[in-house]
Amino acid sequence: MRTKKRNSNAMMGELKSLAMISGGLVLGSMGGKALDSMLKVDDNAPGFQVKKLIKPAVQLGAGVIGAMKLKDPNLKLVAAGVGASGVVSTVKVVLKKDLLAGISGLGNIGSFARPLSVYQDLARLNPKRYNPDLPQLSAGNYTPYQESISSNNNNTGNAVEADFEII
Predict the structure, then answer these.
(1) Domain map of the chain by residue range?
(2) Residue 27 exposure: Cα atoms within 13 Å on the Cβ side
(3) Contact in structure between 18 and 78 (CB atoms under 8 Å)
(4) Per-residue confidence (pLDDT) for residue 65, from 0 to 100
(5) Pure H helices in 70-165
(6) Distance of CA 145 to the CA centre of its chain
(7) pLDDT at 80
(8) With 0-12 CB in 10 A as exposed, 13-18 as middle and 19+ as buried, what is 41?
(9) Which residues, including other chains, have CB under 8 Å from residue 137's CB and lie 6 or more apart?
(10) Helix/strand/coil for 159
(11) How many angstroms separate the CA atoms of 8 and 50, rounded?
């Protein structure tokens, strides 16, 4: 009974730490969006804007300072999540790709760069009908199976010969 309780406590601790980091990631993303709306950052503007770097710098700074200065381990995990949101937004600003959506242009290795689709619409594909071109089978000389009983006692099994036609 002791190991079961200890295992469930360890599992709950791991789930709690995962929830704290995920919560920090969500809080950092929400705070970053609020910061972008206050600074009026235009995502559609061409070229590089220095205003776009403020959000990742604030998120990373808040995450690092929070992880260093806070005493509560749960709040340190939330601060780590805020810092992780800063890393995600830094990649988004520098590479102009969303890290959480995957980086398709990075590492074009064979079929990994193409999106995979499981479903294909048959009406759109318009497949040709399958028409097998098989030869006609002939009746041949078919004889029904008959069990032969031999009077020879040395024969251990009944042998039946069948006619086979190889096509």
Answers:
(1) 2-99
(2) 17
(3) no
(4) 92
(5) 73-95, 122-125
(6) 57
(7) 92
(8) middle
(9) 167
(10) coil
(11) 48
Cβ pair 31, 59 in contact under 8 A:
yes
DSSP characters over 87-102:
HHHHHHHHHSS-GGG-
The pLDDT score that the predictor gives to residue 130 is: 79
Residue-wise pLDDT tens digits, 34-61:
888 888 877 777 777 788 888 888 999 9
Residue 129 tokens, joined: 């009908």
pLDDT number for residue 9: 84
Of the candidates 105, 102, 62, the one whose C-alpha atom is nearest the C-alpha of residue 84 is 62
pLDDT for the residue 41: 78
Q: Which residues of the chain have pLDDT under 50?
A: 1, 108, 110-111, 152-153
Rg (CA), the chain: 36
Q: Which residues contact 95 (CB under 8 A, 6 or more apart)?
A: 103, 106
What global pTM score does this model have? 0.55
How far is the C-alpha of 29 from the C-alpha of 82, rounded, in Å? 8
Return d(Cα 43, Cα 158) in angstroms, integer.
87
Q: φ and ψ at 153, to 5 degrees?
A: -80, -15
pLDDT at 136: 78
The whole-angstrom separation of Cα 63 and Cα 36 is 18
